[in-house]
From TrEMBL:
The keyword S-adenosyl-L-methionine does not apply. Residues 48-83 form the EF-hand domain. This is EF-hand domain-containing protein. InterPro entries: EF-hand-dom_pair, EF_Hand_1_Ca_BS, EF_hand_dom. Residues 349-374, 387-412 have a biased composition (Low complexity). One of its GO terms (molecular function) is calcium ion binding.
Length: 422
């Protein structure tokens, strides 16, 4: 019944199935959770109980992971258009505050283990810098396959998390690299791909270890919560599976993807996520590295995301990755600023001067948020319905009221990239 009511409302309001999915998915990660869907239903004027919400998600969730992909969402509305030009622009500006409901996906209620507290004075000594990556391990290649075009996927050879306590400097994998050929990325690309290096500059001795490197990495470069299969081809001699990372929370983003030669999801520790506030949208267009030529599996294409990191992105079909999948780091070199990381490093003890600075920052953020709400911030009104249908007019009035009461501005004053949506 809920799905039928939702489809009817979307039809009456001329909402495209893809447009409404992207509007509800405030985290912009392509995976709709229960909290986001609940906010969207309230905005539409279709509030439901938590059991009904969970029933709706389970009914659409083909792989039973508690999250809805765009494909799973669209499959629930086969008779509705993907996009509607009349409302697409207004929906693109919509920002909703997720509702506090119980999630269904694995690890949703898991509490991250506490890391070792890092004093602000120590945090200030940590330098983050993009460095050229020279050594790689082959994950998969088309060598020996009956493929018209060659393809290989490579993982950067970096330190494992188990050795961080013995080091003062370490590189971190943010995803795998794809090459339209069989050479490793450092030979195949005119511009050497980069990885993120973290250095504790308070350590001057070459072989000395950092007391806090491991704790900083755990909190600011955490592994993903899990991986979701994007595409696979098991018709080749060596199968290939491509996975998208699910970040551990809305404050983090996964910049790249990883591949395996088996259907078993990789362990989360194979890559790191980064704080979303450190990122901006990639302005360079993705470059296509390979397109399948209609093999036994579903059509797919592999891309390098921009010119900064050149990480692998894979999509079903031959269209480029969507804009919300393409991120880059805002800077190529920076030191940590503790006062801008207090929400990610809650256990860090503050000195009196830092506490005063942090309180001032939070007060400023609250004032900005209040200003936005009091000024009636939100998306522009959606196009009116055609006269002559009382039911539709009633729905329009309900929707306008819901919009005024439920829409919220996103992360005002977060100190980050802006426009991150969650």
């Amino acid at each position: 019944a809920t799905l039928w009511r939702l489809a009817l409302m979307m039809s009456h309001r001329s909402f495209g199935v893809h447009d409404i999915f992207h509007a509800f998915n405030g985290r912009r990660n392509g995976l709709l959770n229960c909290a986001e869907l609940a906010a969207g239903l309230i905005w539409l004027g279709l509030p439901v109980s938590e059991p009904d919400l969970h029933a709706l998600v389970r009914g659409l969730d083909a792989d039973d992971d508690g999250l809805l992909s765009l494909e799973e969402w669209a499959n629930g509305f086969p008779d509705l258009p993907e996009s509607e030009p009349a409302t697409q622009e207004a929906l693109a500006q919509l920002t909703l505050q997720p509702k506090p409901v119980r999630e269904l996906y694995e690890g949703a209620t898991a509490v991250r283990p506490r890391s070792k507290p890092v004093p602000p004075e120590a945090l200030k000594k940590f330098k983050f810098k993009l460095q050229p990556q020279k050594s790689y391990g082959l994950v998969w290649s088309s060598k020996g396959e009956a493929s018209r075009d060659e393809l290989s996927v490579w993982a950067p050879e970096v330190e494992g998390s188990g050795v961080l306590q013995k080091k003062a400097k370490a590189k971190f994998c943010l995803g795998h690299y794809v090459v339209g050929g069989l050479d490793n990325p450092s030979k195949a690309s005119r511009v050497t791909p980069m990885v993120l290096e973290v250095t504790d500059t308070s350590i001057s001795m070459a072989l000395s270890s950092s007391e806090y490197l491991s704790a900083v990495a755990e909190q600011l470069l955490p592994p993903p919560l899990r991986f979701r299969l994007v595409w696979h081809d098991d018709s080749t001699k060596t199968p290939i599976y491509v996975w998208r990372a699910v970040p551990p929370g809305p404050n983090f983003v996964a910049l790249g993807m990883v591949a395996t030669a088996s259907d078993e999801a990789p362990p989360p520790e194979v890559m790191s996520c980064v704080p979303k506030r450190w990122c901006t949208r990639e302005t360079d267009r993705p470059k296509c590295a390979w397109k399948d030529a209609g093999g036994a599996g579903r059509p797919a294409s592999f891309w390098t995301a921009g010119s900064q990191l050149q990480l692998m992105l894979a999509v079903q079909g031959h269209d480029p990755p969507q804009e919300e999948q393409c991120w880059k780091l805002s800077e190529e070199r920076w030191f940590l600023e503790p006062q801008k990381l207090m929400d990610l490093l809650e256990q860090v003890p503050e000195s009196p001067s830092l506490r005063e600075s942090s309180s001032s920052l939070r007060a400023s953020s609250a004032a900005d948020q209040s200003s936005i709400l009091n000024s009636g911030g939100g998306p522009p009104p959606l196009p009116p319905l055609q006269p002559g249908n009382n039911a539709r007019t009633s729905s329009s009035q309900s929707l306008s009221s819901s919009l005024a009461n439920s829409s919220r501005a996103s992360l005002s004053g977060c100190g980050g990239c802006g426009g991150c949506g969650g």
